[in-house]
Design goal:
Jelly Rolls, about 300 residues, globular, seven-stranded mixed sheet, about 0% helix, S-adenosyl-L-methionine-dependent methyltransferases
Length: about 300
């Protein structure tokens, strides 16, 4: 992957009609920058939970929530065989059948015993009103590693009303002094934005292959763009749905076609360039079907 200033998108030259605010986050204090979990409420078995400075997303230190995965003796296993651990929740207003987008940066690290591997690093699962709508399973853990991922999925509101938005941290084993710590930051819940939607999956290390999921309209043509900056407000382009956010040095990466199910997996080789470490890059895709649609902006950094 080569980042260059060439090929500025044509829509940047279009007369701009108005600006739009960013997608409204239905979650309060999803980035924990208040240095506390309020208005989140803890439940279950809270083990070594706190808000502290940590580089969860690979873009530098920020306040994150973290806790040990796993349960304790005397609990009842869940149907999936996992021991219930800690959970944090708050109340959100949901509308039945409305489509929502959830994203969060997550990481696992064995803080207590860094070189110790583990058979199960734990499961982070999202429940809305008691209904599971998505999860990320870290699987086994290798010593001296710090695996990162981004949870990213869409779902429809199971029913209308005020619902418990609950993030649950469970594991197949009891928690102990050698259990990995789970970190979570940048929790976002919005009404599903305009497609295409970009989501980085798994690791985003330099000198390695990344996996980027791009979702849009089945069989539509699309173009992927990047920018080194982001406008304070999205910019409306006449005749286009969505809004344009990219600023600074920007350009087009490629043009391609979504599959019959509306997906495209991009696996770029990230250069071994120290200048990319922690540098936030902003991404948008534009698709053409019955009309031209500008997708929601997605931002992420690469790391070692």
């Amino acid at each position: 992957m080569k980042l260059s200033a060439a090929g500025l998108p044509a829509i940047a030259a279009v007369v701009l009609a108005c600006t739009l605010p960013s997608q409204v986050n239905l979650i309060v204090n999803g980035d924990f920058e208040t240095k506390t979990i309020a208005p989140w409420v803890e439940s279950g078995w809270a083990s070594s939970s706190k808000v502290s400075m940590h580089d969860c997303a690979g873009a530098g230190l920020s306040y994150t929530f973290n806790c040990l995965h796993g349960g304790k003796s005397g609990q009842t296993r869940r149907p999936n065989g996992y021991w219930p651990g800690n959970a944090i929740e708050q109340t959100v207003l949901m509308v039945q059948t409305a489509e929502y987008l959830f994203t969060a940066d997550v990481q696992i690290q064995n803080v207590q015993s860094p070189s110790t591997g583990n058979a199960d690093a734990g499961l982070i699962e999202l429940f809305i009103g008691g209904v599971s709508v998505g999860k990320h399973n870290f699987g086994s853990y290798a010593g001296n590693s710090k695996p990162r991922a981004r949870m990213c999925f869409r779902f429809k509101g199971p029913s209308t009303g005020l619902k418990a938005f609950k993030l649950d941290f469970s594991r197949r084993y009891y928690s102990s002094g050698r259990t990995p710590t789970a970190f979570i930051d940048n929790i976002l819940l919005t009404l599903a934005p305009s497609e295409p939607i970009i989501c980085p999956l798994l690791e985003r290390k330099i000198n390695a292959t990344a996996t980027i999921d791009i979702a849009g309209t089945a069989s539509s043509r699309f173009a992927l763009f990047y920018g080194t900056g982001k406008f304070a407000s999205g910019v409306r382009v006449p005749g286009f749905s969505g809004a344009w956010w990219l600023s600074g040095v920007s350009g087009q990466m490629f043009v391609n076609t979504f599959s019959g199910t509306g997906n495209f997996i991009w696996k770029p080789m990230i250069p071994n360039d120290p200048g990319l470490v922690g540098f936030l890059i902003h991404w948008q895709a534009v698709e053409a079907n019955t009309r031209v649609s500008i997708g929601e902006v997605t931002s992420f950094a690469f790391y070692r």
